[in-house]
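TICKET #2291
ISSUE: user wants both folds in one file
ATTACHMENT 1:
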Amino acid sequence: MPGASPAPATAPAPPAAAPGRTPRITGLHTRLLTVPLRRSWGQEAPENHVIATEIQTDDGAAGRGFSWTPTIGPQAVQALLDYDIAPFITGMEASPEGVWDLLWKRLHEAGGGGLTTIAMAGVDLALWDLQARRAGASVTALLGQRQDAVETYGSGVNLHYSLDELVAQVERWVAAGHRAVKVKVGKPDVREDAERLDAVRSVLGPDRKLMIDANQRWDLPATFRALDVLGEYGLEWLEEPLRADDLWAYRRLRKQSLVPIALGENLHTVYRFRDFIEAEAVDIIQPNIVRVGGITPFRRIVELARTHSIRVMPHLLPELSGQLALTLAEPTLVEDVEDAGFGQLGILDGPSPVRISGNRLTLAGTPGLGFSFTG
């Protein structure tokens, strides 16, 4: 099958694990799925890539997970899983945190984050799925569900939309019941951004939350100029206006900005989150569960944020981030990009593990993570 790693050779069934013994990993299988987006994110991102993963253990069980990238490196991620990760983890006890720590040390020579942690997420998610299935529970229940439902917000990759298309999108969000929305900014002339936000705010009214995301389009002087113009629209946060690596600039920005600063979708390790938090360069962190390497590091990042009273807003992937959001002690918002969920893209072989109705996300109650991909 194109995009699939070679099927493992036929072998005798593994012996059942002895009672009380943690099963060991016997194999890792991957499949690459590329799916066109129903609403294009622009010329640079017309599709998304999912690397579906399955881990087998010596007691005959299996856990399913995935890695994900909207643009760069899906084949590289799959190759890393097939040729470097699979042989390394084979024979290890199927313990998510133990495997994660050993694997991160192994891969660090190729980079502490980025493609390495994206690939690691495929292993970590599958191991958590396996552990929850073995317990006969959802991953949310296994980790400890703290909330019955969590609020979602309407989000869109819409800088390339015309003003009329943008207004129509916001009207759909309002009609669906969203109390918070996020739109893209970063037009060549900030006055056009202001015109678009003025129209958006007119649809939202004064009481709904409005967030803006510049996707690293500005430098520091441009950000200050933009805030002088756009700050009047009652913004809940300004997301990633500067290059994600530029800690020095974010520290200066947060000291002077009256609008809360949000970032994190392009930070990949707990150490980078620690750096930004301790430098007092951020108000809200937005870890992407796949980009940081899975559930194991995501939970560590959340606890770091809690000790510093920093809010956590998971980035994208509501079918995954919604499950983890239900385990958080503090209120959060889950990002729901219009028509971009896995179920909406038609790549789930079965129902979604979460339900979104209006602006509320609840758990469907499927065992494990509940992901089974088509193909």
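ATTACHMENT 2:
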Amino acid sequence: MRFLFVSAPLPGHLDWGGFLATAVALQRRGHEVIWASGEAVAAQVQQEGVRFASLAETGWRWPPPPPMARPAQMADAAWRRLRRLRALDQWLEPARVEAGMAALEAVAAEVQPDAIVSEMFIVASGLVAERIRRPLIVVGWPAVEISTGAEEDVMAEASARMARLLRIGGCEGVNFTRQGPPALRSPHLHLTFWSERWYAGLALAPQTRHAGGLPLDALPADATLPSPEDAPWVVITLGTTFNRDPAFFLAAARAAVNLGCRPILLLGRSIDPAGDDRWLERLPAEAVVREFADFRTLLPYAAAAIHHGGAGTTHALVRAAVPQIVVPHAGEQLHQARGVARTGVGLHLPPEEATVERLTAALAALLPDLSPYRARAAALREEFARLGGPPAAAQMVERSLT
């Protein structure tokens, strides 16, 4: 079979716990796989031996617009609505999605896929799959039964945008939710790299399947870092996208030092001490700052992590059995924070509560060798491993089409 995978042009959107790895697994099983996205991720995809098709537009807004400044007289409710609309623009701005649909349909016409396999935030995938009458498979996200929530003003705007796109595409919306907030909804398969227990308490539709993940392969510890035997490592990161929050990094680093640990900060971007990053001078002397790191040389040796709740980072920490504190900053990160709390492998703190004092107390609960959080993290790693990871995910994709 021939599969057309689609993602936003960001490295983190190739992951979701095993997205690109599943494409590789399908290829190893004898299928033809083509990955469509922006040029920014071409090298990363091709490095894994997967054929790449460039899209001039995916529908995902990148780079994001500059941060907003709240007008002095704006009420809280109006400010929250403005922020929600801005988040909506990230993935559901009609003109951008329409351009993404045209680009993706041109690739599909050339590739002639048997199915489109997409991440959750590429609306064009659902529209194009319906237009070319091919099954849509959503990877990295469950099919959740959702009802109308409190954000009805923004949901009305989102629904209007979705209706416009359906009209433009001449689509009925077979690959989208019928109630609640508009979202991709495959009638065939939603494949996650978590477990059923991760979503405990949520109403999942029957087309949801879970593939977990295999234990993180450990490489020798990063020799450029002070030994974790000297002071336990606490990994601190906000990922590669919404990562400019000096207050978070300063508070997390200070909390780690308060407990005798070595804070290792991964900024996920270029460091510019002469510009916006002058706050780095205020870090504790014990802190180590890096732009990026190979998780295989870092996480297996870490005592804990404080991070944003990105899917790839959270999943890697589960696979390494590292207890974690999640401080979600944007997008889907709150979903990972809730999964961490539900399974008891760590703690969730809202950004406004991520003070030095609160982080120190949370970290103190995670660090002991006999901490229940550490024991639950080890148990969850084994639970994920039993589900089979990307090789099992590839089989699930196959079975959904036979």
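RESOLUTION: both attachments delivered.
EXTRA DETAIL ON ATTACHMENT 2: Residues 94-111 form the longest helix (18 residues).
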